[in-house]
Design goal:
alpha/beta, Rossmann fold, 2 domains, four-stranded antiparallel beta sheet, 10 helices, about 35% helix, globular, disordered N terminus, ATP binding, transport, BCA_ABC_TP_C, P-loop_NTPase
Length: about 270
Amino acid sequence: MTGTAAVTESRVASRLQGSGAHALELDGVTRLFGALAAVSGVSMRIAAGERRAVLGSNGAGKTTLFNTISGDFLPSAGTIRFFGEDITDLPAHERIRRGLRRTYQISQLFRGLSVLDSVFLACRGVSRRRFSLLRPKAADVNRVQAESILNAVHMEADRDTLVATLSHGQQRQLEIALALAGAPRFILFDEPAAGLSPTERRDLVAILNALPRHVGYIIIEHDLDVALRVSDYVSMMHNGRLFKEGTPQEIENDPEVQEIYLGGGHG
């Protein structure tokens, strides 16, 4: 990052944090599947630029909560606000246009494209020129942005590699790159460390910690070590409800958390 870019990032982060703005506000969010309440009455405030971990054992309701925030499911009850705007009933693509991004547990990539082309299309897809049929030039703003994103996720050497030939860890890196397309304001990371080797997990921690500070995120992660190293605050879920919240240190040392999360047989 250049000195100018670092100063600009710092100013953006300070302005957002100083304004007291919330990136996400959840009030009584509930998602029912028949008689089953996968998520029940979840209320949460996440500041602009905040990095939040949402933890819990399998079946706690974490991914269903993500699906309601991203618009894959509409909540059965409650409201969701994104930077002050009520997005409860908005479809997923409208939430994306407002700067919300997410990754998924299972990679959803275009295996027949190169790494650079994949990120370029993601950048073009959220730009005003997304319907243009003109072939992009080398200095095209979306291509330049794609190159910059690949540098940020340590994939510049793989720019011309076919996605289908990438390792599992590289595919997870590429998913993060796609989530960074189009200057996102907030990102939902759904188990980005799943299936990664210890070395790849260390790289993931470095990538997430190096993201621009004004870009907040929520991370769902089963690897407690990864989650606590990349978050400012932690929300624990149990049986579809918020169970406990605190700093990474408070959560790590909490006996009830250790019993439910570490001793609960999660995989």
